Amino acid sequence: MALRLVMASDHGGFALKEDLKKALESADVLITDLGVPNESSVDYPDLAHALCETILDGNADLGLLVCGTGIGMSMAANRHPGIRAALCTDPYMSRMAREHNDANILCLGGRVIGPSLALDIAREFLDGSYEGGRHTRRIDKIDLR
Ligand code: RB5
């Protein structure tokens, strides 16, 4: 069954979101794009919260959020219990985010990394799978309620 990936960005992440959407869409990856549709200025928390709801409602398996730095998106997303959003700047981080942290959202900075590196980071994230075991005890301690 295809992996259901939901993507969203603000204006600062729009260009990278579009690049990644084209590169990642395949028979194995079914993409839902929540916007934005252009570079008009918006508020990144609106997009982050909508994407988190999509995952928490069971309508996507993993999420990809892009803003200028990735920082604001990760801050907003991580306010949701059950969401583990990882801001990554290299492929090792994104692989570990899946394998050790069971991250369900990857955050990227469209003004920080180029499309080629971003694609490597995203591919590691999508290919990685949670290892379970000792990591579950640690993940269970992340949410405070
Ligand atoms: C928008 O200018 C910028 O602040 C936003 O994309 C993001 O970088 C926030 O963390």
Describe the protein in words.
Helices cover 41% and strands 18% of the residues. It has a five-stranded parallel β-sheet with strand order 2-1-3-5-4, sandwiched between helices. The radius of gyration is 14 Å and the shape is globular. The longest helix is centred in the middle third of the chain and has 13 residues, at 44-56. The chain has one domain: Sugar-phosphate isomerase, RpiB/LacA/LacB (Ribose 5-phosphate Isomerase B, Chain: A), CATH 3.40.1400. Helix 4 packs parallel to helix 5 (115-127). The chain has 145 residues and is α/β, with parallel strands linked by helices. The model has no long low-confidence stretch (mean pLDDT 97). The structure holds D-ribose. D-ribose binds next to helix 3.
Could you tell me the CATH topology label: Ribose 5-phosphate Isomerase B, Chain: A
Strand content: 15-25%
Rounded to the nearest angstrom, the radius of gyration is 14 Å
CATH homologous superfamily title: Sugar-phosphate isomerase, RpiB/LacA/LacB
The count of DSSP E runs of length 2 or more, i.e. the number of strands, is 5
Average pLDDT figure: 97
Poorly predicted sequence stretches spanning 5 or more consecutive residues? none
Sheet with most strands: strand arrangement: 2-1-3-5-4
**What is the element string, with H for helices and E for strands?**
EHEHEHEHEHH
- Return the domain count: 1
- What does the largest sheet look like? 5 strands, parallel
Quickly count the helices. 6
